[in-house]
Write the structure tokens for this entry.
Amino acid sequence: MTRLHIENLQAKYGEKLILNNINLSVEEGEMIALLGPSGCGKTTLLNALCGFVPISQGDIFSGDRVITHLPAEKRNITMVFQSYALWPHMTVAENIGYGLKVRKVKRAEIQSRVNELLRIVKLDNLQDEKVTALSGGQRQRVALARALAIRPDVLVLDEPLSNLDAKVRLNVRHEIKALQKQLGFTSLIVTHDQEEALVMADKIAVLHKGEIVQVGTPEEIYNKPNSPFVADFMGAENRIEWPTEKDGFSDSSHKITLHQSSNNEPSNQPKQVYFRSENVILSTRQTNSKIQKEEGLILTGHIEQSAFFGSNYRISVRCGMHIIQVDHTSDLPMNTPVSLQVPNHALYIYDNIVENKVHQKSTVV
Amino acid sequence: MRFKASYNLWLIAPAALMVAVFFLYPLYFSLYSAITLDNGSFTLTHLEKAFELYSNDILFTIMLVCVSVFILAILSITIAATIALSPFKRITSLLGFLYRLPLFIPFIVTAQMMRTFLAKNGLMNNAFVEAGLLTPMETISLLGWSGIIITFVWKQMAFSTLLISGAMAALDESQIRAARNLGASKIRILFEVMLPQITPTLGVAMVLSTVTMMSVLSVPLMIGTGSPTMMSADMAFRVNSYGDYHVANALGLVSYLICAGLAWFYLRQSLKDKGAVA
């Protein structure tokens, strides 16, 4: 069953169009991540859902209810804020029970619901603490419990983890996901962190300049990005434009070739090629021979820089005008001549014309 | 290079001297004068005389100030809350401009204005008569205690609204949003989320307003009916008519104690709140 449905939504700040033509359905019990760089409109979308930002066009349905123009307090959509937004003059229990108190639920019932939630978010025995005495991770869990206490139709989370330090963030991320599976609440989470989106969400909607550019499962978004923007945003940061005559590959030590089995197109058609650093196979000249037989993108160049990343080295390879980032297991000295191979399945190739279309559309926004 | 402590003391000396000469010495002298005879020996006669002659006025002053501060608090909170919570941004920005105007009008001008506005044949009554709401026989003068309250509230409202409005604007917007999407109405948000957090500022605004009201001379002189009147008018009378600085200072001591009592109450309250947080 569709719990939340957004149709042709448009929102403006004054004359400036922030969200345009947003269409999204969230099924009961599903968690959708809104992923995008800062300024793409993802938080505005959450605020529009909650009723904090007026909508200039389109409709929002919660179940069968049209909630497009309902005031925030009547929507039954609760938010978990980036800044926690707990009320410092109330205790943990008062914060969590507030929504129920507003709904005139009986005191004993509030008490038992608060205790239940405290147990769920693992904050038992802290009910009488002032929220100012809690750590960041505990505060965010109180905020989560507060938002869940009234059993909202939809829970929205606005970058709930970005104020937490790295280790706590992983814990809370895991806990939110586990809770979502256990309690089955319908939720939307805003994030700019692609890893967070991949781990937590059932589906991801990638936003770019106020429009949704791709919706799909994490696997689809990661493995089949439908546009250069999504590919780049999902970590395929190495980019080469085709043709490459002006890119300095004329030199004998810097070469580039692209072999594709299903290559029916003329190779001089303008194209953009994206790939991830982890999919690049690096070999020094001695091990060269075995690579050449395979297909894909093959580049030669020399090493310009090497940085230690813990589990591997991130090596910057100069190939003509391009610097290609490569993950490699061992450190290599500067200026070592190397060849790089990217298998066909790891290449994301887009016609330049399509990119121009996307570009034109986004400049309208 | 570290300076010795004595060098550091020289740095604060000019400022300390200013405070001592222009504030501490006059304050000390007025308190001293309130409880000593001309020959310097300790006495309570001035205080006794002050209470004997002016206890009605002291009570009158306390009552007026209490009522004014109470009305002031309600009105300032209402205006500040309207500005903070109203969805109609254009109207609230106009309101935000209007409420500040009295800040720039001195008390004596306000008093003169209120005199011509509130009198029996003043602007307000004339307007009612013209509108056919009252006949000239039915008009009543609001000069007197009610006029003093109206003037105090009118003048101090700008100041206290400014403080309260600022405190409300400083609250995290997402705290208010959180309450809204849990279903709280605006009134609930005001009383349960905003007011508890701005109590310290409200306290400051009210204490400072009290001190201002206690010290204004022009308003009771121009709008009051003479008897009973406020302590500031009594002090002026003692000095101007009798040259009696002792009783005037004794009245000053009383008004100082009233303000100090209030400040103590406020400080205790805010310390208690802080203690609970820590």
